[in-house]
């Protein structure tokens, strides 16, 4: 079995700058052409009185493909002593960009060809933008046709300086600029005497010096949770976490953390159907895992090793997306983002620039992306998610956007963006600015009611505890009411059949539920009441959103039974009377109520 290293290189350049000649020369000088192909093309040119060009070799390969021989003309193959190479050409910009952005193709580096005589053209800059938007950071600039300027060093240095400055603005540090004549073979595989002033590597030497991405097993562990299976038959009480390992390895005894919930546990066993127990699993395997500590996790979370490099977490990120939707990609519309096994609401909040894939025109003023546009955008998810920049971890750096149940775009994540002002924060800011207040101050209400306003959320890490939690909430309301406190309990289900009655079930979501509860809490606490509700399996970020929505009043989250939080322990037991007493004690301790007696 051939285990040679393989590397993908994309080659771009303005028309007639010699891109095809560079490819043909690389194929010929590395002995990578089919046997006799070079001689056959040379003989054909001789018989037809045509000057031979290495670009003709690609045309010859196209002819073979037309005859049914399996050669992909958009991909050229050659090898050196170090590794095998695939050069990805871009004959059609739309298909090329779609493949590169959506992941059908990938490249670790780019060769950008510039004609020394013609100099830097607009397309040269466009291709630089493409490299930047695709997240390609290893860029080698080939200054071709140096023979047409008599291998003039000053011409080369001018191009290196001017184009280097341009790439620097795109946050690309070019690996090297190489002067060459692909037609004559100067500095392709052999160092040229006609560029004695150039002391750098040849094209092949430069390619062999580039860094390649690691194999999946060498990367940090990334396993999106597909589902959690519970067994009850024959005394089997296992809870199996199922998913496919995208990268890295996992073994029994490894400490893992699930993101974004940050819940930790230790791998107890690696399960499989009808197979003997094993201690280790590898990238690309679908596995089932049991944990030593039973914690509540949900499908869509990302499992990583505690000791590994951690992914980034946030609700805002910069990404490039290739849009294929029937309707344009517009700002602040809610779409569905799918990354790993996670599906979550997402909005495009800002367009940085757009490339028309057909013409390669760059537009920094458009406010929506049309079909076949490549857009560099800022996206914001409904809640924080775990991801990696595509340059670090391709498996968790790619996503798709769904609009009206159809995949409408594929993208790559470039970097995390600070969540200084999320859409929710901006909404609360505007809401408070426009809030029409009455004449009665909160302190006046507290003096009359005998208590301060408070938003109380009862939660638990298990939906199985739902009936008990709801009973505790009702008993708490009744106990406070008997003490003449203005307490009000509202079940979350009432929102679906009340405030959100006009919304269909399929349009209802967990994020919308949290938003509705938070907005209602703002109104009820503003009236001075103690508002009580239950939200099962409340997560840290959801609690933060409720806290934000309830401003300026305060929130008290009470965890009963199993804790769903990473940073909080249970506040009360599942025993109703004891739980009610515990909550009352917390309210008194926080001076929400002054006297509390059961």
UniProtKB/TrEMBL annotation:
Keywords: ATP-binding, Elongation factor, GTP-binding, Nucleotide-binding, Nucleotidyltransferase, Protein biosynthesis, Transferase. CDD domains: CysN_ATPS. Transmembrane segments: none annotated. Residues 4-218 form the Tr-type G domain. One of its GO terms (biological process) is sulfur compound metabolic process. Its EC number is 2.7.7.4. The keyword Signal does not apply. GO terms for molecular function: ATP binding; GTP binding; GTPase activity; sulfate adenylyltransferase (ATP) activity; translation elongation factor activity. PANTHER family: TRANSLATION FACTOR. This is sulfate adenylyltransferase. It comes from Desulfitobacterium hafniense DP7.
